[in-house]
Specification:
309 residues; alpha+beta; 2 domains; eight-stranded mixed sheet
């Protein structure tokens, strides 16, 4: 009987190690390589570009897993050899793994408004970079150290009460904060997976400029032949906003969830006039502000001119 229970909890533990692995992959793509899913990057040779490229590809993309998951497995095997509390050991490790994920998610959701308000350092045109993600990286590293320390020192059943309570109290507010934060106004998100690619540069190259009126963008991307375009000397991205108007629990259950995208940009034409333009579209994905987990791309979208002066 004890062996059967141990085997079942061991399978549960293996699934939580996989969840930690999946979460750390999100951290790698969204925080340790922040330029992975945007079309602009720092110049070659800068420390930001070198660090981004290291964590984006092998072997750098394995470093978080090796430091956390493998270390946790080693600690588990060492404690299992001592045969102290061996029957409850898998459940204790599984609980601490789930608490790590829940608290890390909660911390990222709570930190994001602070980052946008307290760390206004200039970034790239997509406002991506370590100037926005270093607090999240630091908190994740501290939580990982606490996870391994707890798995080395903690004893069952005391840890069951403490960490199960933390898991419940941490994950529930995290989902609540995520739902409130994503309501039609998730500013400057971090894209994981498929990310919206602003088609402005491609349109300027294809059509020789941009229109001064609103137009539906065609696949390619391209502009309709009947639309008049004007040469552009410069343009800058002002803001990125995504939104999911549905409740979070509905989006999670949907196998093809969608979210809206709005990017505002300032355009300077060769004739000296300036416009505030917007690119609007939708993509497949799940909004957990500040993270957007992209599942796939949507239509080319619509270019709108909000103001011309």
């Amino acid at each position: 009987m004890h062996i059967a229970v141990f085997g079942a909890t061991l399978l549960f533990l293996l699934s939580t190690w996989y969840l930690v692995h999946a979460w750390l992959n999100l951290v790698i793509e969204g925080w340790l390589s922040p330029w992975d899913v945007v079309p602009v990057r720092p110049p070659q040779g800068t420390w930001e570009r070198s660090l981004n490229d290291f964590f984006q590809s092998f072997p750098g993309n394995l470093v978080p897993d090796l430091l956390v998951v493998v270390s946790s497995i080693v600690v588990f095997l060492r404690r299992l050899v001592t045969r102290r509390h061996w029957k409850s050991l898998p459940l204790m490790f599984a609980t601490t793994n789930l608490v790590f994920i829940a608290l890390n998610l909660l911390a990222s959701l709570a930190l994001w408004p602070v980052i946008n308000a307290w760390l206004p350092q200039p970034g790239s045109s997509f406002d991506a970079g370590y100037h926005r993600t270093w607090p999240l990286i630091l908190v994740t590293a501290l939580l990982a150290v606490c996870l391994l320390w707890a798995q080395v020192k903690a004893q069952w059943p005391r840890v069951s009460v403490i960490f199960t309570g933390l898991a419940v109290s941490g994950s529930c507010p995290a989902l609540g904060v995520a739902r409130l934060a994503q309501r039609d106004n998730c500013q400057s998100p971090l894209f994981v997976g498929y990310a919206p690619v602003l088609p402005i540069s491609a349109l300027i190259h294809q059509a020789g400029g941009l229109p001064k009126s609103s137009v539906e963008i065609q696949p390619g991307p391209a502009l309709p032949a009947s639309i008049r375009t004007y040469p552009v000397t410069d343009w800058n991205l002002n803001s990125v906003q995504v939104a999911d108007s549905r409740p979070l629990w509905e989006s999670i259950r949907d196998d093809d969830p969608t979210y809206s995208v709005k990017m505002e940009l300032q355009i300077r034409y060769a004739d000296g006039r300036e416009s505030i333009g917007q690119w609007k579209t939708w993509h497949y994905g799940l909004v957990l502000c500040p993270l957007v987990i992209g599942y796939g791309v949507g239509p080319p979208g619509r270019f709108e001119v909000a103001e011309t002066k």
